[in-house]
Amino acid sequence: MTKRYVRPTWFDAVFNGAVGWFTRMGLPLAGSRVLAVRGRTSGEWRETPVNPLRVAGQRYLVAPRGHTQWVRNLRAAGAGRLRKGRQVEQFTAVEVADADKAPILREYLRVWAWEVGRFFEGVDAGSPDDRLLEIAPDFPVFLISSTAAS
After folding, report:
1. Which NCBIfam families match (predicted)?
2. Are 53 and 59 in contact (CB under 8 A)?
3. What domains are there in the chain, each with its CATH number?
4. Of 3, 43, 87, 112, which is the most buried if we count CB atoms within 10 A?
């Protein structure tokens, strides 16, 4: 089975670059952060803008493009950093089981659909749980827990 991955377009690259730049300057777009994770092969820090989400008191990272490089790196590393301006938060991450993703994906779509809804191809916050569970394997989700702040 091929794992879903949506490659960024030139527009996505420009948009992500702008969001990342503003977030690094301390001006995040609607709560965005810059995720830094060590590369699973190189060991070098890799960065990309992400949209953290809070559901029922827990925080999550959702990968709307599927099984991206940052997802693969986070699986291997199990930890990373979230940055907003000079604030850097270190965290650990645990991948969420597909069976537990429906409420998280629903809330992610409710909050972030204006930016990432196109990656969900007809699924939205009003979709039934069985539809959200059907697409769950294509959208990695990580529960994140802060370990330190600087």
Report:
1. hi_GC_TIGR00026 (TIGR00026)
2. yes
3. 33-149 (2.30.110.10)
4. 112
